[in-house]
């Protein structure tokens, strides 16, 4: 009992499932993290500096890039530290702080992706009233509402998790603190927490996803009514990047949160969390740059301003 009361934190053992040298993991995670920061930072700066990108769609993309930089920075630096040192412990307060910001940023991104789908719906299905309807005030209100809901959701989960007793093992079979893994370690009845996690995830995860699906059903119907193939390609190209990001994010994130805890292998959770927490934020700027003609042209103007002026 003395040892249990002396240490109230947790020890990460997620990498014990993978026998490869930890230095290799360190280099891989460091490369992905630097790529994420540079890629999203470049998108953020380009969308801010280039006046042609001062539109609602790129306003939301700026916030998406900022979110990707934030929530990957909540976990990856601590993972990198744990790969270099023998002790892989985190304090109870540090774990709760990591949990709060991770859940908050992921929740905001779920809502922001739905907002971006709605923006594309208005742009394609109601092009004549798009600039009038999607004004700066509405865009700001949608972003603020996404942040408010995400932060409040995180307060709920963090508060409920902080009240749980952890009197059994302190070994967290994961790479960072997250709700499903912490519930597995509690020696109390976690059914209320699991139901809350499922209900709130349905509200802030499944509901925005359904909004995205409905938006794209209307978008596809509107695009198919366009007579020229060139017009259809142009309309679909404005949605391709967002749809790819949605697919990557939701397939991994919803797997991790939208289910009660179970006895499946722990490395499945670890791999899924790496996908949505590390890989997806790294791929987002690549997707938006490679599949978006406007962004590629803006990048050329920002990175080569003298050449752009001469043209």
UniProtKB/TrEMBL annotation:
**What GO molecular functions are on record for this protein?**
G protein-coupled receptor activity; olfactory receptor activity
User: Repeat: present as a keyword of the record?
Assistant: no
User: What are the entry keywords?
Assistant: Cell membrane, G-protein coupled receptor, Membrane, Olfaction, Receptor, Sensory transduction, Transducer, Transmembrane, Transmembrane helix
**Which is a Gene Ontology cellular component entry for this protein?**
plasma membrane
Which membrane topology describes this protein? Multi-pass membrane protein
Q: Where found, per UniProt?
A: Cell membrane
Residues passing through the membrane, by range: 23-48, 60-79, 99-118, 138-156, 195-224, 236-258, 270-290
Which superkingdom, per the lineage? Eukaryota
Pfam families referenced in this protein's UniProt entry, alphabetically: 7tm_4
Span of domain G-protein coupled receptors family 1 profile: 39-288
PANTHER family from the entry?
OLFACTORY RECEPTOR
- Entry's family note: Belongs to the G-protein coupled receptor 1 family.
The name on file for this protein is Olfactory receptor
Q: Which gene encodes it?
A: LOC129339112
């Amino acid at each position: 009992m003395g040892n249990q009361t002396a240490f109230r934190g947790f020890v990460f053992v997620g990498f014990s499932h993978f026998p490869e040298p930890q230095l290799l993991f360190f280099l891989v995670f460091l490369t992905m993290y630097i790529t994420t920061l540079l890629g999203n930072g470049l998108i953020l700066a380009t969308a801010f500096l280039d006046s042609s990108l001062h539109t609602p769609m790129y306003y939301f993309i700026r916030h998406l890039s900022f979110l990707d930089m934030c929530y990957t920075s909540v976990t990856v630096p601590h993972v990198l530290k744990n790969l270099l040192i023998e002790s892989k412990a985190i304090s109870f307060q540090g774990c709760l702080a990591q949990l709060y910001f991770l859940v908050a940023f992921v929740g905001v991104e779920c809502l922001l992706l739905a907002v971006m789908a709605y923006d594309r719906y208005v742009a394609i299905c109601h092009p004549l009233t798009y600039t009038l309807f999607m004004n700066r005030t509405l865009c700001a209100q949608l972003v603020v509402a996404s942040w408010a809901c995400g932060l409040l959701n995180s307060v709920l989960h963090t508060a409920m998790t902080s009240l749980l007793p952890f009197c059994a093992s302190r070994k967290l079979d994961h790479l960072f603190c997250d709700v499903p893994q912490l519930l597995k370690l509690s020696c109390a009845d976690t059914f209320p927490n699991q139901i809350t996690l499922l209900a709130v995830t349905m509200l802030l995860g499944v509901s925005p996803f359904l909004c995205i699906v409905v938006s794209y059903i209307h978008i596809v119907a509107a695009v198919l009514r366009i007579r020229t193939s060139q017009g259809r390609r142009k309309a679909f190209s404005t949605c391709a990047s967002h749809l790819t990001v949605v697919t990557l994010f939701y397939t991994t994130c919803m797997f991790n949160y939208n289910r009660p805890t179970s006895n499946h292998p722990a490395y499945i959770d670890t791999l899924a969390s790496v996908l949505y927490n590390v890989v997806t934020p790294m791929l987002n700027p690549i997707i938006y740059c490679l599949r978006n003609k406007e962004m590629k042209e803006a990048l050329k103007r920002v990175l080569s301003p003298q050449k752009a002026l001469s043209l």
